[in-house]
């Protein structure tokens, strides 16, 4: 398998864009055992193995990074092997840390039903639809994720206990984006999410992940992040007080997101 495919398949093992830790596995016990194979509530077995959803599988350590080992191993390489040696590997269309969910684009008991949502152009949405989108984003910023935590002891001495902290749905997503944008601890390598051929694919997966998290807190299975088509626009048509806000003369942001930190 090519390294790219390997990374992509590991991403699928944990069900989402890489970088965050399932709350189900963010405990000292899981870190000590190096295992993230939660019990699927639906059948009481690890990774839902009793109902054929998946199994607890050992991960390969991956090839050693060629950089200077005295500068430490970058925790993102061969994700998630820095944290876990065993994780749930889901079969078919099942996904999630415990294989208790459906993969992107699937629904239903056995995750066999296609679920298609079309991302519409903001300009073609009604005022009410746009307001609903803004409300969902506000909820993402103010609601703690019940699903993921962020890794907080980055850069700590390798043997130090790993620590995690809760964050809002939006802040977890922001952290994932930040983590994928940094160069490696060895100082080598590009910003993999942005300065390489991975750009489009990485962000496609990222948006699917963010939409899924927002669907989780709003309960709206059809929530989507709209498209902004700027063809034919002379300026930033979404930089309005109704949507993403404008810059004031003093450099402040107006609009619904002005108080976000
Ligand atoms: C949201 O996620 C939690 C934790 O994974 C899950 O228990 C809950 O059923 C989800 N809710 C929805 C509406 O998807
Ligand atoms: C963009 O241009 C339109 C007219 O072409 C104008 O009405 C609008 O105020 C401008 N918006 C910004 C943010 O400059």
Automatic annotation (TrEMBL):
- Where is it predominantly found? membrane
Q: What is its EC number?
A: 1.14.18.1
InterPro entries the UniProt entry points to: Di-copper_centre_dom_sf, Tyrosinase/Hemocyanin, Tyrosinase_Cu-bd
Calcium as UniProt keyword: no
- Cite the Tyrosinase copper-binding domain residue spans from the record: 168-248
Per UniProt, subcellular location reads as:
Melanosome membrane
Q: What is this protein called?
A: Tyrosinase
């Amino acid at each position: 398998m090519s390294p790219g495919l390997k990374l992509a398949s590991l991403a699928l093992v944990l069900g989402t864009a890489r970088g965050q830790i399932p709350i189900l596995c963010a405990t000292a016990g899981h870190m000590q055992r190096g295992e993230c194979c939660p019990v699927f509530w639906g059948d009481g077995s690890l990774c839902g193995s009793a109902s054929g959803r998946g199994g607890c599988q050992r991960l390969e350590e991956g090839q050693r990074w060629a950089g200077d080992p005295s500068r430490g191993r970058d925790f993102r390489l061969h994700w998630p092997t820095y944290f876990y040696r065993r994780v749930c590997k889901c079969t078919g269309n099942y996904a999630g840390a415990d294989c208790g969910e459906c993969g992107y684009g699937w629904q239903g008991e056995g995750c066999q039903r296609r679920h298609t949502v079309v991302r519409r152009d903001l300009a073609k949405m009604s005022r009410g639809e746009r307001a609903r989108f803004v409300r969902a984003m506000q909820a993402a910023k103010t609601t703690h994720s019940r699903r993921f935590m962020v890794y907080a002891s980055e850069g700590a001495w390798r043997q130090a206990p790993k620590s995690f902290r809760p964050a809002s749905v939006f802040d977890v997503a922001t952290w994932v984006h930040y983590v994928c944008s940094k160069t490696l601890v060895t100082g080598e390598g590009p910003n993999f999410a942005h300065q390489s051929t991975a750009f489009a694919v990485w962000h496609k997966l990222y948006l699917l992940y963010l939409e899924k998290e927002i669907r989780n807190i709003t309960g709206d299975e059809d929530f989507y992040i709209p498209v902004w088509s700027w063809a034919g626009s002379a300026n930033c048509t979404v930089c309005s007080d109704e949507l993403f806000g404008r810059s004031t003369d003093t450099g402040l942001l107006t609009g619904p997101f002005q108080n976000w930190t």
